[in-house]
Write the structure tokens for this entry.
Amino acid sequence: MKGLKEKRARQKARYGQAENSPLLRQERNAHHFPQPSKQRFYSFETPNEKWVTDITYLMFSGQKLYISVMKDLYNNEIVAYQISRRNDLKLVVDTLKKQ
């Protein structure tokens, strides 16, 4: 059978095994990523020096309620919080006004 070339079935690339997969690219370029620090400790001398905020949702009776929380990092105290049915700018502003 001259002239016939053997054809191999092309294998389907699997995630994480293909030459250009994100995992292999990350491995090859690992030296470009900063290494995370082992532990971070923050200390603050006075209250109200540094605040952080977060918004999350909770499910109650099949509906979402959004809670916006403001926390003081000096003593991890919750300074203010506000609950709303909508995640919008008004929720954040109302939380700031409560403190």
